[in-house]
Amino acid sequence: MTDTEEIRLEPCEPGALTAAELKSLFLFEKLTDEQLAWIAEHGCTMRVPAGGLVLREGDPAESFFVLLSGTISLTRRVGQDEVTTTRTEQRGVYMGATNAYLRDDGVPRKYMASMRALSDSEFFMLSATDFGRLMREWFPMAIHLLEGLTLGQRSMQAAIGERQRLAALGALSAGLMHELNNPAAAASRATGALRERVAAMRMKLGKLAAGKVAPDRLVALLELQEEVIERAAKAPVLTAMQTADLEDELGDWMDEHDITNGWDVAPVFAQGGIDTSCLADLQSRLDSPELLDQALHWIGYALETEQLMSDIEDATGRVSNLVNAAKQYSHLDRAAHQWIDIHSGLDSTLVMLTHKIGDNVRVVKQYDRSLPQVPAHPAELNQVWTNLIDNAVQAMGGRGTLTIHTYAEDDRLVVSIADDGPGMPPEVRKRVFEPFFTTKAVGEGTGLGLDISYRIVVNGHGGDISVESQPGDTRFLVRLPLSEPPSS
Prior knowledge:
16 strands; 50% helix; rod-shaped; Jelly Rolls
């Protein structure tokens, strides 16, 4: 069945059933003769040929149907698939506007499933208005109970959904604070160390001046300092083993040349990529052993100062990136609906979930950066990415590979979020988007995350979400239209 398939039904024939015939249906068998007569007067019968679509999921619920003969099937959309929920030929089964008795609370009544005749079938039909009226007038106590049950379930779903959002917000906030704490603490430590090094540099400068260093020598020393700092900035990054070997070489050189506390200075030069040839060049340009000792300490302080400033710059940059990711994730400073690059939302969600993803999950990004922007509610889509990525990490037990793939498919953009966990059995895969369905232990899941994701993607964006799963490869596929949906 396609969304554009037309429903073509034969005209409904009024007065085709008598009160006695209605009484033979289990739904009406306890009604009085007067009530049966009223239903017979207001109802009609309709014949549908084999293969005919009787009602479609999501259309306004305008009629109440009772099967008189034939075989029918009820189906629901799960992603791109039509899942058959019921197949029956039992006379008297009913479907359609079954909630027409509820008070009008502004919520549109829609068919919850699609119904198709598998063989030539006949139905008794009442309008939703008439069915709602007879239910409210004839069974007031039952209506109170049913309304309480329906509205109670709706309120419970809303409360649990709100609780889930608050719990997700708390987890994200805790993760964000954890991520912010690391660079903030690093910047604080580097700032304290920098203050000490600057003070030491002032003292060294004073000692150099007190040593009656000639002005031209002092200028040359400053030039040497700048040359060493520039050389350190361009030095290749060394491995830990290479750095340790370089420290040994520098320490030995400084011992040979009677440099005070040379083994304390050597790690600073090694960290900056300065080798013994550079020190030999410094020695040749400073022909005084005493001046060499003072100069190396002073240049060492300058190098360490530069390294500390780089650490502070890196730490504050990480804080800024995290703040930008949080703003991108929440989109607090942007319009609710806009054209967006889908990758920015995926990246910001990954940053926000860094703490939860952990070090044992490898994240693989297979992005098609040439994809066009899509019309979307970015904050809502980020909630979808959060649910899907969080579920994938949990499915892998916090260890494995998370793959995020974006690509175009016909007139839609597809986001695939895959994990290499154990997979889902078929009976679970069919129900993953049902409200309150969860495979987690009591208290660990509400069963609303994927239901909310489904409604955001399908109802809010006119897209589609489905799941494919086998051991070692479970992937949720979110398909979003590349153009604005037509206005209703």
